[in-house]
Design goal:
By secondary structure, this protein is an alpha/beta fold. The protein is 37% helix and 21% strand. The protein contains 13 helices and 15 strands.
Length: 444
């Protein structure tokens, strides 16, 4: 990686100023969590309000000297010149919010793809820091009679960075091609995909592990997950589906990071359904929901159907599972605890309904020679009841997506019994759970 990360436990001063001219305000609590997630040890916090950004730094310099701080973090975007001037006057390293997020990403990336994406974002950020960053610009002479400067140190560094960025793009293009091939294979097999999205530390990885029995890293910290992971699950009355865990979003997510992780985020754009995981404990959940919606719009995923999952109800007094439907009877929000598993059955029911596009019920009669089909129907959890007639044939009551029933009928010579009641949307045989009453986990 091109950007040096601060040593773990480095004494850090946090600076968070509210500028009246700024429309969006960052959360100072989230800023401190970001610093601790990066491994910094905050020793002082400087806050305040300004009408306009001001170049005064005496208070910060005094705080750095008093605490022996080695790093100052600003919860704002700093220009390259501001960063250099502050480092010169404060006599220590300075990072802005973007640099801090990049630092965390550099620590958490594990896969080859993740490391490439982080390095790409770092290089793009670093390229803006090269301007006027050198005093030895006449490194070599050139031209007729050695008149005038040749290629400067700055130009050399810029050329090296451009070459490395080009190489990374080629690597990510190969990754994108592999992902696209996998998506086409799933589409041919008609396997729906579900992508977990949400604000960082909302509990996506914990929910992913609960759904798939995976062992992906999950921790109570920001950006615990960077590497996209896909797993197959079996949904009741639907069959197989692919669930993907993704990187968490954050307010003022640098555009360069969104671009760098576009190969991973394409899984979100092409998903059949999005599970928007929301931290039910966070009092600012409505604002965080809007931040996620903003990023989804930026990556052209705002039109993908989604189900809101209000998580962490186990940490809320009187928090109970629930399922909310819209006027058309389709699920729009579910309350769960990924940690304890409470409410996951309701979420699976909602996922099945939204992915199926309408379930139908049908009775089929299978002969002994159709044992392979019977096994498939049971593995896909399409069978709701079974009887055996006097000839030994199996009479199966099925509940499954209409498209899957049509596919089976086209491929198999089946004898049908009396059709059960069918519907498009939700069924009376599915649990009808009232929404949790408005309260601390309403998410409204």
């Amino acid at each position: 990686m091109f950007l040096d990360r601060p040593d773990s436990g480095e004494k850090t001063v946090l600076v968070h100023l509210v500028i009246d001219s700024e429309e969006q305000r960052d959360d100072p609590t989230e800023f401190e969590e970001l610093a601790r997630s990066a491994g910094a040890s905050p020793v002082a916090y400087i806050g305040g309000t300004r009408r306009q950004p001001a170049p005064r730094y005496e208070e910060v310099a005094a705080c750095v000297r008093a605490n022996g701080a080695e790093l100052v973090l600003f919860n704002h975007a700093l220009s390259p010149s501001q960063e250099r001037n502050l480092e010169r006057h404060l006599k220590c390293r300075v990072l802005d919010r973007t640099g801090l997020i990049l630092d965390i990403f550099a620590q958490r990336a594990r896969s080859h793809e993740g490391k490439l994406q982080v390095e790409l974002a770092q290089l793009k950020h670093l390229s803006t820091r090269l301007k006027r960053g050198w005093t030895h610009l006449d490194r070599q002479k050139g031209g007729i009679g050695l008149k005038g400067a040749g290629e400067t140190q700055l130009e050399l560094d810029q050329r090296m960075i451009r070459q490395r960025i080009k190489a990374i793009h080629k690597g990510l293009d190969r990754v994108r091609g592999q992902r696209e091939q996998g998506r086409r294979s799933r589409q041919r097999a008609e396997v729906p995909t579900v992508s977990l999205v949400g604000y960082t530390n909302a509990g996506k990885s914990t929910l992913f592990n609960a759904l798939t029995d995976a062992q992906t890293y999950a921790a109570d910290q920001l950006f615990a997950t960077l590497d996209s992971t896909l797993r197959r699950i079996e949904l009741p009355n639907l069959g197989s589906a692919i669930v993907g865990d993704t990187v968490g979003f954050i307010s003022h997510l640098p555009h360069g990071l969104v671009e760098a992780f576009r190969a991973t985020l394409e899984e979100t754009v092409s998903a059949t359904l999005l599970l928007h995981v929301i931290d039910g404990v966070n009092e600012a959940r409505d604002e965080l929901r809007m931040e996620v919606e903003s990023v989804l719009k930026e990556i052209d995923a705002d039109q993908v159907p989604r189900l809101e999952v209000i998580n962490k109800i186990d940490s809320v007094p009187d928090g109970e599972p629930g399922l909310l439907r819209n006027e058309a009877g389709l699920p729009v929000r579910v309350w769960v605890s990924a940690k304890t598993g409470v409410g996951l059955d309701l979420m699976l029911t909602a996922m099945t309904e939204l992915l199926s596009g309408g379930l139908v019920s049908q009775t089929v009669i299978l002969q002994a020679k159709q044992a392979k089909l019977r096994s498939h129907l049971y593995q896909s959890k399409f069978v709701t009841a079974e009887q055996t007639d006097e000839t030994g044939a199996s009479i199966l009551d099925l509940r499954l997506p209409k498209a899957e029933l049509d596919r089976i009928l086209a491929q198999e010579d089946l004898q049908l019994g009396e059709p059960k009641s069918s519907r498009s949307g939700h069924s009376n045989s599915l649990p009808q759970v009232q929404a949790v009453s408005a309260g601390s986990v309403s998410g409204s």
